# Entry
Amino acid sequence: MKRILWSLALLWPLALAQPLRVAILWHQHQPPYENPLTGQYEEPWVRVHGVNSYPWMAQVLKEFPGIKVTFDLTSTLLKQIEDYLSGKAKDAYWRLSEKPVAALTPEEQAFIVQRFFDINPRFIEKSPRYRELQAKRARGEPFAEQDLQDLRLLWNLYWINVDYIGQDPRLQALYQQDRGFTQEDVNYVLEKHLEIMATILPLHKELWQRGQADLITTPYYHPILPILLEKEAIRESNPALALPKEPIAWPEDAAWQVRAGKAYFQTLFGQMPGGMWPPEGAVSQKAAELYAEEGIGFLVTDEAVLGKSGVPVNPLTLTRTYHVEKEGQRVVLFFRHRDLSDRIGFSYSQMPAERAVEDLIAALLEIRRQVIGENPNAVLTLALDGENAWENYPNNGNDFRRLLYRRLVEEQAKGTLKTVLFSEVAQEPSLPLARLGTGGWAGDFAMWAGEPEENEAWDRLSRARQAVMAYREAGGDPKVVERAMALLYAAQASDWFWWYGQDTAFPNHAPFDEAFRSLLRAVYQILGRQAPEELFIAVRPPVSPQGTPGRVKPTLDGQVTPGEWEGAAYLPDSEGAAMQTPDDLIHGVYLGFDEANVYLRVDLRDGVKARDLVGQGFRLHVYATQPGGEGGAAFPEGLEVSLGFPLQQRITLDLDQVKEGQGVLVRYAYREGTWVLASSPADLSGRRAWVGEVFELRLPYTTLKAEAGDTVRLALVLEKGGRVLDFAPNGAPLALSLPRRLEGKEVLRIPDPEGDEHGPGTYTYPKEAAFAPFKGLFDLLEMRILDSDHLYTFVFTFAEMTNPWGAPAGFSHQLLNIYLDFKEGGRTDTFAKGAKVAFHPEHPWDLFLKAAGWPQYGQRVGFPDGTDTAEGILVSSNPADKQVIVQLEKRHFNPKPGQQVCLYVLVGSQDGYGPDHFRPVGQEAGPWNLGGARDEDAPLVVDYLWPEKGVQEALLSQYGGGRLAVLKPYCVAWP
# Structure
């Protein structure tokens, strides 16, 4: 025994002297941008990242030969780089850049004005000319030929990494010139793009050959492999997610993706990859076993999966390696440190490079202090996107990356940190996992499945695959099957599903929707079949009108009466002129409701009154979804332009049937490819239109087949003689969420001061237009709690509520964290690292509720032991009443009368990429971050529930010097 103790005493100092090994993975990926129907490449993102991040990420490593990193290069990225270099690929932006400016069509000019601002605002700010052109577009002024020429060059030039610009005298000269460019200048920049892209593969091969970098890949088209194996993986990742309706269980497809990825990699690099980054970090037990069977040595995924595998997540467990084994075949698993990875990806861009790097180094050294004595072989994994983060950094992130590598070299010299390759560590002993959890880098699969649009995309994919299988089983041509399956494999890419749903409502999602539907239409074309109508329906998030549709009490007479539409949302038909027709008549639309009806007011352009159209053959249609309905028409009658949603019902006003200023609205339903009369006499008296100066329409809920709590999408179409003249909105629907009925006895009401949405008293709004009206969005006015049977309903009322990104719960901005102290024990830190506050030591919390507009961001119940669940909680809203509603089952929270209950209610700005989904606060407000923080210890809480003025500010302002603000709870005796 003494000998053992003596040996331990000798080895302990040696263990403490070991460095913490750091394995870094930079993930480089782009989806396929070739349109299978046209053969044209559409989006430019392979090219622009190919002159910015891909080559530079490898080039900078040559300055630091002691640093080792791993690059994941996906097949779809590598294939498209090769296509650019061979001349096969020319994206739409390239084609419109090389075309002489005088030869551009009006449509091409419009594309350039609309899309050549697709670049981070940081770059536009660097150029006076770029800012001038942006302001010109904002004013709606026409662009002259020189404007278009300058815009084309600036966009192509500013995507080039600033270091490469500095190394080329002519690029430098163009950078300084800033305006007055020629076509020859544009052509030179495009030639430079190819020259830079040609260095990508040689640079990576050189680093790999000398052992400084490891190269790995993914399954070929970057699919969510667990879902391909079985759709139940969606619900395994998060029980709150809905499943697609059609069958998905395609192990042969999953195996093809893995094998094809390996094979293409070997073709380019001459040997097989040692490991893989599972697309989106997505793994499951079945997926890991497949990787093992296919000879993949290691995988890298997220710490959340380790927790789901039954291993508590902490620095010690995160710095160990694990494995899954099946029939003697093993795959090693590394679990990334999410917080540190996300700091690089999302947070450090808001900090000076020196402070950001020191923050990361300090965090790594602290982890080393915690783990190295117990595990001298500890390895910490950092894994993140290696392409998209840098444009958000000052100076393109070049300063941060250089300084990070320099500091790592310094720490390596001290023996405290050491960069390593995953392939090196994968050879060492690892711990077995009984069963690997299901999830990915985002925790669950909610970014790719679960919402109606996402599940519909999976169902469309499944139906197309069923068509191919039926063709094959009927004895079809094997070569046709092979070509069709190749398209289906491409349609399995994770990227298409990421852009669907309301959790990713970015302006440029439309091309991804169109590309996905083109792939599936091409499948049917190869089979010699007509593509289903559903594949012609564009999927568009709702437009954002001025204001939120609310309760109205209009005087229905077709006349404009001041104030009668107060509370309605208003949508100006500003894009109507794009139709370029004198028949563009709709000027704007008002939308509101009461307890039984939906109301619409349609204004026509100046000088035209609604009554002028009576008896002229016009018809005004309201196209809408039917809650719970399936299918629908792709286009309105007389127009082959999608309105952005399936048209399931139509309510028609025939202006030849208007008498004495009134008309009856007639409902039609879309069934089996045709519109059929579906009006019910039960609500005949309610369905009415008044035609005077304007159109005023009353649609009973019963006509729309809608009930309280439903959301209806709709659009208006003006038609004459079977020809559509005008429609609104243009290409995307209006959305109307009918308020839920709140039931239960009120047991608690706590008011909060109006106008205190400034955190410690200094916070200001982000500058991006999505945060309009720049007040009220985070201003909590009161909290009510209702008691009904087995539920408590928490109702949070805000001064303002908008939904610019189309969150499925009806609100985009507010993030609520509610901490409840109602029994002994608990925690005084936050459930997850996000809000950057602590809680009073006399009132540790026992229950945590998180509410956000997206289920994956906030529909959780958390407990002090670090576990959480989506069961027993429902998050919704009443946008018209500006209310966030949280329904909580009493199994989680049911205090006794007279019991003391203490509440911490925190309001933050929801950010899908922020720490625990809180939006960062910087010293100065930027497009996407709040301003007003003194330092990095600033709380991310914008409003805090407390009825007395001044208390919130006093609590939240006590931070700094490494200290977080400590909050006191508001305590009540439970009624």
User: Anything to note?
Assistant: The two ends are 62 Å apart (CA to CA). Residues 575-580 have pLDDT under 50 and may be disordered. The chain has 29 helices and 39 strands. The first strand starts at residue 20 and ends at 28.
